[in-house]
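Sample pair:
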Amino acid sequence: MTTPVFEQTITGYSLRSAHGLAQASQLAYQDEDQIKTTTAVWGMPECRFFQVEFEQPFPIDDTQAYVAANDKVVVVAFRGTELAQLRDWLSDANGLLAPDPNGQGMVHMGFNQALDAVYPQVLNAVSEMRGNGQSICITGHSLGGALAMLAAARMRFGDSRLLADGVYTFGQPRTCDPLMARTFDREFKGRMFRFVNNSDIVPQLPPEPLYHHVDEEKYFDADGRLREKKMSLLGGLTDKVKGQTADPMALGTDQIRDHGIARYIANLEKAMG
């Protein structure tokens, strides 16, 4: 894992920020010691780790996140989960919509409950570490992307009124209803960046129209090229078919393979040149 660039104030969109935050999302899958060791190497001496375990039949084992900071930026990263567990989320009762805690629309019930477990501690850590007016960046892969988006919304629409400077998600599932998505788009215009890798199955779930994505999408096509603007419906479908049939010996696995955070990082490195 290379050293991401976190020393500058992160505002708006840049590939360098996306690359660094993708690595931060990847790091969220590690244990507490590895996370604290790595963020220190990254020049972020302050780091707090959070993990809350759930009892069955909740469809995942726990929620895990960390907050790391230096004098320029505070990074909040949420861990994703195994694809098999995420599929359980998208097929059981936890997939129902529930009211957003701050009245901005409806959100995925299970994602909302998972965030409930760590949000107060995360918000407290951000508030205590941000003594120098640093940029706030929130990130996550897969389920972690859903939690990152919801955490950014709670910070902004809740009592703290904190507005994140960058919300970068990778392979994020649909997380909310259209009303919540529109409200988020207005408030986070130029701050929210949702990366999707070609045939990645997770961003295609849960299905529309009940669930909706935020509008801003950065798409990697079947050749790993970054498309900054949305492709047409026909162009997007054609590109997905191209990705799914690129390897005749691995038909049917592209949707899962494209979901890995390592694929996102490799494609960002390609885009950076």
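The chain has a mean pLDDT of 86.
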